[in-house]
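To close the chapter, one final illustration. This time we ask the reader to focus less on the individual chains and more on the assembly as a whole: which components sit near each other, and how the overall shape emerges from the parts.
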Amino acid sequence: MILRQFTCRAVINSCTQARIRRLRGSVEMAKPSSDLAAFREFFGKAKNIAILTGAGVSAESGVPTFRGAGGFWRKWQAQDLATPEAFSRNPSRVWEFYHYRREVMLTKEPNPAHKAIAECEERLGKQGRKVTVITQNIDELHRRAGSKTILELHGSLFKTRCLSCGHEAANYKSPICDALKDKGAPDPDTHDAQIPVEQLPRCEQAGCGGLLRPAVVWFGESLDSGVLSRSEQVLDSCDLCLVVGTSSVVYPAAMFAPQVAARGVPVAEFNMENTPATMRFKFHFHGPCGTTLPAALARHENESN
Ligand SMILES: [Zn+2]
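The assembled structure is written out below.
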C-alpha cells in the first residue's frame, strides 16, 4: 500500500507530484461525468462508502483555514504556526492561535453537506450499509452534525496531548485556561500575549502537570498510525468513494482517492474547482458541496426503509 510512503503531513512538493503522476498514469484517463442519475445508480447499490472530506466543507460553514491568499492570523499562516518548531520556540503564541480557532468554532455550525453525510450514515446503517468519514478537518463539525464513524487524519482542535506523559484527552473548555481568556485576537497589529509557560494549558493527570499541546498533526509530523491503518482498511474495502471539498494538494489524503480509482471503484468528487486528480475520477460535481451533496446522498428509490 502506497500510503505508508506518505505518512507525514506536508504540502505536496514537486517530487511527490511526480510520484502521484506515475501512480495516476496507471488509471485510464477520461473526462469525469457530472450525471447525477448515473452517480445515484452506484450510490443505490453501494454497501461500503468512504467519504473523504477537506477544508472546502468547513469553508462553507465559515471556518477559516489560515492558508492561501488572505489566510492570515496576525502576520502568520497555518504552516508558520502549526509546526513543532513554532510551538517549542513560542508555545504562548501557538496556543493563542489555537485558542482563537477553538473559540471561533463556538460561532460556527455544520452546514447542509455535513448534515447530508451524517443523515446518510444513519439511514444506511439501518440497512446494514456503512458510511465512513475520513477527514482532514480538525473542527469536529462532522461529529456535531451527527456523523458517528469518523477518522480524523489531522486530529482535533478539541483534543490535547501532554508533552510529559503523552495523555490525550477531549477538551471543550472555553477558554481552555484562564490566561488565554480574551487572547488570540487575529488582527495583524495585535501583540503576543507572552503567557508564561506554567500558565498555558497543563495536564490534569494525577501528579503530572506537564505542558499540553493541541492534539493535531502539525506540518512535518507523522499521522497517527492507528488512524492511518483504519483509513487504509476503509479505502481497501469501499465500493464507492466520495471526495468532498478537498483540494488534493495535501498528502497523504491526496493519495487516497487516486488509489481507490486505480482499484476500479467509482470515485465522485464534489468541489468548487477541478483538482489535479479530477481527470482520474468517474464523477465530478461542481459547486458548493452544501448544495451538491444533499441531492447526491438523498434517499434512493432502492432503499427499503
Ligand atoms: Zn501529563
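The first strand starts at residue 10 and ends at 11. Residues 162, 164-165, 167, 203, 205, 208, 210 surround zinc ion (CB under 6 Å). With these observations in hand, you are ready for the problems at the end of the chapter.
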